[in-house]
Amino acid sequence: MRLMTSPFPALLTAVDCSLLATGIDWDAIRVPRSIGVRCLDVLGGRSAAVVEDPRESALYWFIAPGASAGWDVAHTRPLGTTQYLVVPPLHRAAGPGLHWRIRPVEGRLITDARALRAAVEDVIGPPGAPNTTARRAT
C-alpha cells in the first residue's frame, strides 16, 4: 500500500517522518485528541488508518481526496489541496512522538468521510446544538 502516488517525493522530517501533500491521494481531518479517542469508539471497525500527534494533541483521519471540500464540522480542521501532513513511518505504532494510532493495514487507509462526520457529531452533538462536552473537549 502506498500513502502517496504524487510525482513529488516526500520531504523527510525528523525521525524518519514524511511531509506529504494532502489533496492528491487523500485528504485528512484533524480532530482534537479528546474528541478523537471517543470517535474511535463510535467508529469501531469503520475507522481506517489514524495518525496520532501527541505534541499537537490531535488525531488525523485519512479521507477520500476532495472529501474535505466544504467540511465544516466544529472542533475539526480539514486538510485538502495545498496543505501538508507529517506522517510517521509505517512501523511506528506507538509513541513517544508521532505514530500510527491505527496502522494502514491491508490497504485500509481511507475512512468514509460521512462516517467520520457522524462520529464527530455523535461525540460533540449535532451542528448548532448546545453541548458542554464539546466545550470541555477542546
Summarize the structure.
With 138 residues, the chain is of the alpha+beta class. Helix content is 21%, strand content 24%. The longest helix is centred in the C-terminal third of the chain and has 12 residues, at 113-124.
Protein model, in words:
With 138 residues, the protein is α+β, with helices and mostly antiparallel strands. The protein is 21% helix and 24% strand. The protein is built from three helices and eight strands. The protein has helices at 33-43, 113-124, 132-137, and strands at 11-12, 18-21, 27-32, 50-53, 58-63, 77-79, 84-87, 99-102. A hairpin with a 4-residue loop joins strand 4 (50-53) and strand 5. The protein is globular.
Order of helices and strands: EEEHEEEEEHH
Taking all residues together, what is the mean pLDDT?
87
Q: Structural class, from helix and strand content? A: alpha+beta
Order of strands, widest sheet: 6-3-5-4-8
* Unreliable segments of 5+ consecutive residues: 132-138
Q: Proportion of β residues?
A: 15-25%
Per DSSP E runs of 2 or more residues, the count of β-strands stands at 8
Output the radius of gyration.
Answer: 14 Å
Helicity, as a percent range: 10-25%
Distance between the termini: 33 Å
Q: What is the approximate shape? A: globular
Number of contiguous helices = 3
Largest sheet: 5 strands, antiparallel
What is the strand and helix layout of this fold?
Layout: E1 11-12, E2 18-21, E3 27-32, H1 33-43, E4 50-53, E5 58-63, E6 77-79, E7 84-87, E8 99-102, H2 113-124, H3 132-137
Antiparallel strand pairs: 1-2, 2-7, 3-5, 3-6, 4-5, 4-8
